Structures are given as structure tokens and as C-alpha cells.
Fold this protein.
Amino acid sequence: MTKSSSSEPPALPPINGPEDVKALLPEQLPQLADEIRRVLIESLARTGGHLGPNLGVVELCIALHRVFETPEDKFLFDVSHQGYVHKMLTGRWGQIGTIRQYEGLNGFLLRTESEHDCYGAGHAGTALSAALGMAAARDLKGGDEHVVAVAGDAAFTCGPTYEALNNIANLEGPFIVVLNDNEWSIDKNVGAIAKYFNKINTSKTYAGLHDAAARFVERIMGKGARRFAAKVEEGAKNVLVPSVIFEEFGLRYFGPIDGHDVSLLVKTFEFLKEHKEPVILHIITEKGRGYEPALQKPDKFHGLGKYKVETGETEGAKTPTYSELLGKTLVALAKSDPDVTAITAAMPGGTGLSVFRDDEEVKRRYFDVGIAEEHAALFACGQATQGLKPFLTIYSTFMQRAFDMLVHDIGIQDLPVRLCMDRAGLSGDDGPTHHGLFDIGYLRHVPNFVMMQPKDEDEFVDMLHTMAAYDDGPIAVRYPRGAGTGATPKAEPQRLEIGAAEVVAEGGRVALIGLGNLFAMAEETRDLLEAEGHTCSLVNPRFIKPLDREAITRVAEAADVVCTFEDHVLHNGFGAAVIELLNDCGVRVPVVRIGWPDEFVEHGNIPALRAKHGVTSSAAVAKITYALGEPTPVPERAKIAAGAAVGA
């Protein structure tokens, strides 16, 4: 904590755990909230992170730790990117400057990081179901701990949340849901539920309640206690408060109240703590509260890199990102083809579709379905049956949620849905919940699919044009987070031949096949090997499915060893597909693979993680040299090669 001058209130004592929060005087709690915001703003300016969501839950987290006892009591945060404040109050204050850094604090709750993190998550819609399971387990075991699930209003656009709500009526004991209503997920919330909550925020009833929230809690705590609007006719309640929908699900509704009045929150939780039935508390908060740049641009400050504290300015990318290229290209395609549509699941900014949404000529064909990936996939199926060309644009890690639809609805029906899988490969600072390391494995075995990955931005634009022209079934492209190589797309994009690889060089003793963004690593490996006198073939496969059978078998037959490169786990990945192909074609050649191990890769900067896990050109040289059976005097190579899986 910072020292104070004589004109300031006394300095706060260090916060080393929840007991220190409980030891503060009530009048010190707002000061604690101010100090947390200051530390967050200054720390995240150096590291980047989820600033906006955490600034919005400061008072909520203080109140929770003031009233409840973790780790005995359980707090579950939906998505959990808003868990930084919880971490600060549970013994990790001094480590907050390491958030999302290699070997530092994870950007989400992590069970292995602290006993106070009872549940780890990184995707929306998980908190209510998991919390309900914990509460049911408590009741079966005869426990008395409290279970509190904190979910943003965006989580109520998510299917799993409603599946959990449908089950709450079966619960016998206490259960608290906090609805943190700020009108945002990553972008502005959409759909009927968002409009429903907005009616509350903008109603005259709430406007008065916001100013008189303390009096409201006094009423429900005994001074003429009654539920808010209890005598209001049910139809009117549907406009003023969402109590009807929640109470039909078995949750007694309280609110809405001011989520930034820490004293009010403490009193309310003390009251709700005594309830022996499931309850929901509806709080109204501001995403980015206390930092003007974050209030002005909530979408930008949801999660961002380093910024200047004074202005909130971030350093722009030197070259366009793949996401930006996607948005720009889809707008151009839509203007030339009236059947092209763009679909996202609450991620217009992250996926680059904001420009499509904002373009007057094409915006009618933009669809944001909210945090509902399964629905998004089915929605795209419906459009495809009617002759439209839907581009379903979802992060690789979130597309996992729609796997059944990829098989059952898109694949079986052979529908020409275009899957744009952003953030494929390592997602660095976000960690295992956001790495896109599994999509080749879950998609390449589904019949009828075509799957591609570009080596650079120019090829990416070619692939998008190829997708727009492809009507023979589903087609997908995976591409990495951030900027690419700096390659400028051609003025006239080309349509690729389905399944055709680019053979850059052939006839070498070593055949290097570099997929997508790791093609550059294959080039580096070629340079290292050729410096040692080896000849190399070099292939940019372009297509994961179908593979270019003729090109790959040709370079493999001429080689003594094949090496594949992929930004994906090795199990059931691209290299595995190459091994299968060569085996089926009777080509007997050792295959070594560069890719990620069979484990959940931690968070951190990409170069550090690649070095740790052997996803480097030097590791490739070591494995190739080992496979060739040639001695090497370099100890590091020998160390890396010792664990190399040759032909597997």
C-alpha cells in the first residue's frame, strides 16, 4: 500500500488475505476500493490484461470477502477474467504485476494457483452449473458452506446458464447467484435478454431506486420488509424487474441495487447469507469504473496489451492483424456477392467483424447472436440451406462448444458453412483456456470438411475468396492471433485449387512441411540445415484436409526424413495426418514432428513457451539430425533429440 500525506486518510494496512479485509473499519472499505483500482490501472498498463471487467467488480469482491469465508465458502466467477481483484484479496496482491506473464499469475482463476480459486474457467456460462454441483455436493455431505456464483448479464445469453437455471429448483439448500449487470460482455450485449435488463436500467423506477438503494435494503432487512414491487401487477413486473423469470426458475430475486456501494453490498450479503433457499442478487455496475479511457471504450479495455496510464493509448500493430484482414475482406466479398453473410458470437471487435457491422451497405447481413456458439452454428446452417454463404467467425477455443453441430448439422448435411477459426494456435498470455491447439484434431476427422491454414496474410485473403466461391460443402480456415508476416495481399486475390500444396523446393534429403504460421519456422530450419550441408525440400501445405497426396508423397519418397511443423498439439494434429497419408501410400520414411505436447500449455509470451516446449527451429534441427542417425557435438541438440519421437 502507498503511504499517505497528513491531509489524506490513514494508510491502509497490507492486504495479505481475506482476514485483512475483515479487519478494516467500514469507512476504510471505499479507500480500499480506490487503492485496488489505482494498482490495477498502473500494473496492467505495464502488462496488459482484463482491465475493464475488474474495475467493475472491485466493491463486489471486497463485500464478498468481507462477509464470507474462503476457501471454505466458494466463489465462482463466470469466465473468471474478472478475478484479478479476488486474487489481490487472497494473498496475491504483491504478484498482480505478474498477471498473464510467463510463470506469473494466470489471467483467469486457476485451481492449482490458490486454495481460494475453487473453480477455474475461461469460457462463459460455466459458473451456475458448476456452483450448483458444488451446492448439491455440500447438501449430500451435510456441509454448511456457502456457494456464490457471480455471472455477468452476458452469461444470460449463454445456453449453459439456462440449463443450470432449469435445475436450480431441485436444490434443497442455500445458493446465491450475483447477476453483475453492466450491459457488456466483450462487446455490447445483444438480444432479448440484454434488452430486458436494459429496461431495468433505464426505467424511472430503477432511477429512483439507484439513489435510494440503502433505504431499499433497510426495508428488506426488517424495517417494513417486503419484496421490491411485490404488489405490482405481474405484467408490469416484467418491464420493471426480472423477478418473474428468475422466481419461476426457483430463485428468489432481490434488486437491482448499486454494485459500487460497498456498504450496501456488505449489508445485502449479510442478509442473503441467512437465507436457506436459492436467491439471486441483481447489481448494476460500470465496466471500467474509475478510469475514464475504460469507460469511454469498454470494448477496447475489456482485454488489451500495454497502455499509457495518462491517456489509455496503446501501441498499434505495425501490420494489420488477421482479424482486421478478415473483416475488411468479408466486407468486400459481401459488396460483390449479396449472398455473403457474417455471423459472430458476441465478438465483433475480436474477430474483426466490427467493420462489417458498421458498413451501411452490408450491415443487414451481419448477425451477432450473443455468447451462443451452438446457436450460431445452427443459425449458419439455416442460412446455408437457403442459398446464403454464411461466414461463421468464432475463436478456435470457442468453436469447441459447437462441436456437435459441426458433426451433426454441418457435416452430415454437407452444408456450405464457412468456418473462420480465429486465434488458432497458441494464444500466449491468455493461457490454456484460450489456446487454439485442438481444432485440427476435432475437425479433420469429420467427413465432408475442407480445412486450410495460410502461411501469410496474402494467402489468407486468397483462402477467404476461395471459401466464398466454394459451395460443395463445409470449409474452414484457421489463422493465428495478431499480425502476420507483413505480406501485402494482392490487388486481385486468387482462388486456390482445393487440396493443392505449394512446393517451394523439392528433391532434398530432408523434407520440411510447415503449416500456416509455422512455415516461417520450417524456412529457418532449412537455412540451418543447409548451412551444415543438408539438402532440403520445402512445402507449404495450405490444406490440412484434403492433403496434397501427390506432392507430399513425392517429396517424402525422395527424403531420408520428413519433418512437419504445426501450431497445434501433436496428437491427432497435422503431423499425424501426414504420417497416416504416408503409411497409407506405402512410403516408409521417418517422420519427426514439431508442435505442442500432450498437455495443457501454460500462459506466457510465445517465444518463451516455444523454447520451453521445443517448438523451435533449433529443436527441429536436433530431431532431424537424430533421425538421420548422424552424430552431433552440440549438447543442447542431443538433449532435445533424446526425447524425439521418430516416426510417431
Notes: The domain at 502-641 is CATH 3.40.50.920 (Rossmann fold). Confidence is low (pLDDT under 50) at residues 1-6, 184-194, 200-241, 633-648. Residues 536 and 629 are 17 Å apart (CA to CA). The first strand starts at residue 74 and ends at 77.
